[in-house]
Amino acid sequence: KQRAEPSTIEQRSRNSMRRIIDSAAPSLKTTSAAAVAVSISLAVSTIASAVAVFITKKRIQKETTKQIDQLQELREAERRGRIKAEILLRTTIKNEEEKRISASSAFYSSASSNKDNGDKGVNSKEKEKTSKEENDRNHNMMLRCVGHVVSPFVKRMGTPRQGALAPHARGYIQMNQTVAPMETLSGIASYSHAWIIFCFHANTDCQSLSVKTKVKPPRAPYKVGSMATRSPHRPNPIGLSLVKILGVDEKRKRLYIAALDLVNGTPVYDIKPCVPWDIPGHFDGESLSVPDWVSQEDALSEVSFTVEAERNLKNLVEDGALEPLYEAKQYGFENVKEAIKEVLSQDPRAAKRRGKVDNSKSCDPYKISFSSTQIEFLVQDDRCVNVVKIDKTVVHNKTLFVDGIPL
Fold first, then answer.
1. N or C: which end of the chain has fewer CB within 10 A?
2. pLDDT for residue 1
3. pLDDT at 338
4. Which element (helix H / strand E) includes 255?
């Protein structure tokens, strides 16, 4: 009996524990269910808060992006409007200046016959002042255009800074037969190159009483005098360009040229053949010296075309969209492609994007015009240009042209 007692006691303990557990089970179940409900409620609340935060962030991001796009569109519209206004104002000023010069010339020519009578009763100082003014006036020159340029560069943006950088760029000078008949070009085909004296007619800065003495060239780290640059913004907007002579068309009254850096519609004042002694060092062997920022090499390494862009360009050339500058039979697809590559390798983008890469997915391709086409391209990490799209330029009836340049 004594040996059986521990077992009995253990059994009794077990039974007692079972009764206690059975009596406590309902309350434990109720407590667990409450804990689970609280946990679920907290989880749902957390998820709802996270979703609300996510939706709010997305809404704010969308609104911010929309505001940025609107501001960018507004800025571009204001910029286009400013440039249009500048060009129209420049045209008005030019027309008024021509009227003033014409009236002034007529007045002084009619007054010259009465000069002796007008000199009576004028003291020496007034005579001296009048003499200096007449001397300056007599040295002013009213130039007449001998012709105008037809080139693939329809806007300033995308025009090479020097013609030698784009040897495949083709164009011609349509001669003005009233001022310069074709006989004036007799013998010029014997030369390989010529100097073109022209007017920077596409400047958008209005003339003012103050003269801009210093300018900052795009590749210079500092400002220099306007006469120490090739800048178009000068006291007299006159340019000098060296071009290659391709031939003379007597019937169409044209001088065909290549390797040009002239905007379409550029007024030409004179044409002079290039001779050996125009080249520095031809006789004395002295080399040409320039500042470091002029001679720096900053061309982009490579220009490639997407399959679609190359196919579209080839179709445009074959359809005659780039004639008469690039005829499909004589100067076809390969010449056009090389000309575009030469232009793009010089990074024709605006100064704020020049030298940078277009990595961002949101970065839109840069656009330039070449003849009757619009070219879209991106500059990638390895400083390679990728032409992504080439389409024919659509000119609407409402497109405004000033001096041959579409606004």
1. N
2. 40
3. 94
4. strand 254-258
Give me the helix-helix angle, 307-318 and 333-344, nearest 10°.
130
pLDDT given for residue 343 in this prediction = 93
pLDDT, tens only, 153-192: 998 888 998 899 999 999 999 999 999 999 999 999 999 9
Written as one string, the DSSP assignment of 348-363 is -S-TTTTT-----TTP
Torsion sign across C-alpha atoms 265, 271, 274, 278: negative
Residue 293 has pLDDT above 90, yes or no: no
Place of tokens 């693939």: 152
Which phi-psi region, left, alpha or beta, contains residue 403 (left: φ > 0; alpha: ψ -120 to 50)?
A: left
Phi and psi angles of residue 287, each rounded to the nearest 5 degrees, phi first: -80, 155
Q: Which two tokens stand for residue 240?
A: 């000098």
Which residues have a Cβ under 8 Å from the Cβ of 148 and sit 6 or more positions away?
173, 174, 176, 265, 266, 267, 268, 404
Widest pairwise Cα distance in the chain: 165
Amino acid at 295: S
Highest mean pLDDT among 15-19, 212-216, 339-343: 339-343
Q: How far apart are the first and last CA of the chain?
A: 119
Residue bearing tokens 């667990």: 32
Token pair recorded at residue 133: 């003014």
Q: Take residue 247 and report the two structure tokens written for it.
A: 């031939």
Task: Count other Cβ atoms within 10 Å, centred on residue 261.
Answer: 22
- Calculate the dihedral angle through the C-alpha atoms of 354, 359, 362, 367, rounding to the nearest 10 degrees: 40
C-alpha–C-alpha distance, residues 60 and 306, integer Å = 37
The CA distances from residue 194 to 38, 250, 255, 257, 260, in Å, are 91, 18, 11, 9, 11
Closest CA to 174 of 186, 164, 185, 163: 185
Decide if 116 contacts 127 (C-beta within 8 A): no
Q: Is the peptide bond before 324 cis (omega within 30 degrees of 0)?
A: yes
State the Cα–Cα distance between residues 302 and 291, nearest whole angstrom. 26
- Which of 210-219, 283-292, 306-315, 363-372 is modeled with the greatest confidence? 306-315
Neighbouring-strand partners of residue 171: 257
Rounded Cα gap, residues 182 and 50, in angstroms? 80
Ordered DSSP codes for 154-168:
-SSTT--SSGGG-TT
Q: For residue 405, which amino acid is it?
A: I
Q: List CB contacts of 297: < 8 A, sequence separation 6 or more.
A: none
